[in-house]
Each structure stands twice: as C-alpha cells, then as structure tokens.
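Hey, can you fold this one?
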Amino acid sequence: MPITNIPLSPSGGRRLYRFSAGVWRFLTELTSANQTTYTDGTPNSGLGGAPPSTNTATGNQISMSQIPTGGSQVVSREIYMTLVGGGTLRLAMAIADNTTRDAMLNVSDATLAGQATPPSADTSGLTQPTGQVNPGSPTLIVASPAPFDPAGGWVVTGGGQVLRYYGVSGQFLTGIPATGAGAIVTTILYGQQATPAPTLIAVTGLSKAMQRGAAVHIWIQRDDLLAQAEQATRDGSDGIVEFLLVDARRSEPSLITRCDADLALFSRPIITVQYATRDTKTKSGKRVSINLPVPPIQAVLTIQDVTITEIDIADGLRPKFSVTASSVRFSLEDTLRRLVGSG
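Sure. Predicted structure:
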C-alpha cells in the first residue's frame, strides 16, 4: 500500500502506525527529514506495539526554564506567544502559582489562534509598594529575583549606582557591603530599575587591581606546532616565536580567523628570490613558480617589485624586468591596514 503526503516534522523523525484488528500498532519510523512517501508491505504479524498514551514527540514543543516569578502578592502568571511567522501575541499558557520556574509549552498554532490577546493595561489589581532603601543597607529588595545570580554578582540601579551582592534570599539581594566599593551610597526609591551588570566570573591570575571601567579584551592564542618543530630543527631552540596582534574590533571567531591567517603567512621563514627576465607579462602581484636546485627552493612566490630597464637598446630586444618575488606579499596598503586594525 503506497502512503503519500506524509506530514513533515521540524526534527525529521516520524513514526507511522497502522490500524489493525481494532487497535493502532507501530509500522515504521521515518528518519529522513524530507521523506513524504512510504510503501507499506508489512504483514499484520510484523507490526509493533501501540502508540504512547501521551505525546512524546519533540516537535511543536518549547522547553522553558527560569520563568520569572513575581512579588509576594502574585498568585498566577500568564505566558503569551505569537503564531509561526509572528503577529499578535496570544495566551499560550497560564501558570496557577508563583513558584514554577520550568514548563513545557506545546500549544499548536490552531489552538493558539483562538486564545486571548494580552490586556492593553494592567489588570492585575496589584499595588506597587512604596518605600526606599537607605545608604549602607545590606539588602536590596527587587520585584523579581529571577534575573540575578543566586551566587552573587553586581547590579546597576536606575540612579547609576553599581552595587555588589553576594546572595539572593526571597526578593532580596543580600550581602551588600555597608561601605566602600559596591555599597549603596545614595537612597534608592522603590520602583527604580535594577538590572544585573555584565560580569566576568571565575577570573584568576590577576596580579594587580583593575580600575572600574577598564577595558577587557578577548585573548586568543593560536599555535602552529609543525612550524615550531621545524624552527626547533633549524636553530636548536624550543621553536616557539611569539607575536602579538591587537584588534579590539573583532569577536572571538573573527579573531581566530585572523590569527590563523597570520600564521599561514608568517609561521615559516619568508622566502625572497630576485631574478631578471624579458617576459613582458611580468608585473607586481602575479604568482611565479620557483624551482632551484642550489639553493634548494621549490615554492610559488608572489612578485613584489618589478624594475624595468634596457628599453629600446636594440631592435627586437624586449626590456629587462628585474624582479623581487617573495612568499608573502606585504605592500604599503597591507601595512596601513594592519596599523589601522591594531589601533
């Protein structure tokens, strides 16, 4: 029996069941993400077990974690989402407590389309508490502790203060120093914004204190072990030659690519060959193959410089082209580009 128009799945894996003797039984599993047809030649005796009693498919499911909780007066929360492709937000789930942080969302677009939209104004009936946090306080109350690391960190307030906390207890950030760096030095009114500050954690090896606001850059180290071994053979050292590139504009993947490109150019000794020819096609930037027995050089080099002499000294004699070719093309433009990139 040919089966056609089998629905596709985002994850690719699908199972087919066949109705036999009054029950559904397992037929086969499709592992190809694009397969939409199947020819069923399985006898009833070759069918498997019944389908699961609950949905175990990962398609149309979103695993949610770290769902924010509210203040002490909150008794339920609602989650809204759009249909595939965007559009109006619709009610996707209602959580009937103020403690659940993890949930599985598996509502279909067909169901979601008929759900309510978010209210246009605050209908919670909750009142915003009034008050203030005074300078030197060891705690800071927040509307929700969910964004903050329970192990501690830094927080930026709406007034521009940067505070240090060492723990979270209920709705309070705790362990704030009474004085000094990270302390509350001016009054913080209830309702002011408090957000986690970007923080590097588990940093080791600092030999001196860093000033607040000091720049922090990504460090990338790339090594050419084969080139190190070749250098060690040449001069008897450990073969390691270090060179520092500075480019604060780039992200980690871009820095890795640039370092690898620099190694490709300069990890081996630069080969330079000078020769003369009367080939009129000779010009800077062209590639030329060099194969010399003495000294032994077999390489494809790039012409760096061409000087033309002996022009029209005899009928039928082409000019002389004195050429400098090298394994690395390093022009004035390249130098300026590297200087700008390192600024």
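The chain has four helices and 20 strands. Let me know if you want another pass with a different chain boundary.
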